[in-house]
Amino acid sequence: MVSPAIALAFLPLLLTLIIRYRYFFVLLYRAVLIRWVRDCLTGLSREERAFQYILTHATPGDVQSILDTFDHWCSKVEFISNIGPKKGHKHTHTLTHLSSSCEHCPITVLELGTHCGYSTVRIARSLPIGARIYSVEMDEGNARVAEKIIRLAGFDEDMVELIVRPSDEVIPRLREDFGVERLDLVFMDHWKRCYLPDLQLLEGSGLLGEGSIILADNVIFPGAPNFLRHARSSGLYEVRVHRATLEYIRGIRDGMAELTFLGIK
């Protein structure tokens, strides 16, 4: 039995920890506890609930309406780790610059981690006519939701092709199975432990050309230290990390890495 005096002695420490890590407690509550309760009550996955909300509140074919509705759901209803609007602006700026400076057409994009299709829609709306996105998602349930959201936004299979397979199986076969000769942009937002192995697969595939850009989200939180260490030490990239906070949760520091491929020396 702990005496009241000992309990009181630890109270300031406990309060300090709660204050210091309050945003992480909020994340735990929103991302885990609320999700678990609503999974049990509704019998639907979190991703399916997000789609139902978008379907009833957004305007079909209006990309901005769909993104705004998605952002509202993620910030006010339930948490989903999308790239979010703030980092999404940097994302859009990079795509716009790529579209204007690219010397060849069409632009080819590889997305690793479709999830619900939020970032796919963001990418697609910033690309010129004739561009093509290969979006890879290994979870079949998430892929079904993403397919609905992408098509609801007005992007057909000629622009966005959804590939439901693990990324490490897709990357080595992009040239053979999909006729890809060069990747202009790669966006990584899947399992963080896969960032480095998938980057190395891309390096060995011959699909990265001088000026190809790799954007990788959440490199600070949850973090991808081995990926960043390799990118900085390999001599293959110009590396920048755009500091931000975790999407939809203020107070948790995060960042998105931007790697520009310099070519094999």
From TrEMBL:
One GO cellular component term noted in the UniProt record for this chain: endoplasmic reticulum
Family to which the UniProt record says this protein belongs: Belongs to the class I-like SAM-binding methyltransferase superfamily. Cation-dependent O-methyltransferase family.
Domain of life: Eukaryota
One GO-annotated biological process of the protein: sensory perception of sound
EC number(s) recorded for this UniProt protein: 2.1.1.6
Subcellular location: Endoplasmic reticulum
Name recorded for this polypeptide: catechol O-methyltransferase
Keyword Transmembrane tagged: no
UniProt keyword terms in alphabetical order: Catecholamine metabolism, Endoplasmic reticulum, Hearing, Methyltransferase, Neurotransmitter degradation, S-adenosyl-L-methionine, Transferase
InterPro entries xref list: SAM-dependent_MTases_sf (IPR029063), SAM_O-MeTrfase (IPR002935)
Keyword Cell cycle attributed: no
Catalytic activity line of the entry: a catechol + S-adenosyl-L-methionine = a guaiacol + S-adenosyl-L-homocysteine + H(+)
GO molecular function terms noted in the UniProt entry: catechol O-methyltransferase activity
Major localization class: endoplasmic reticulum
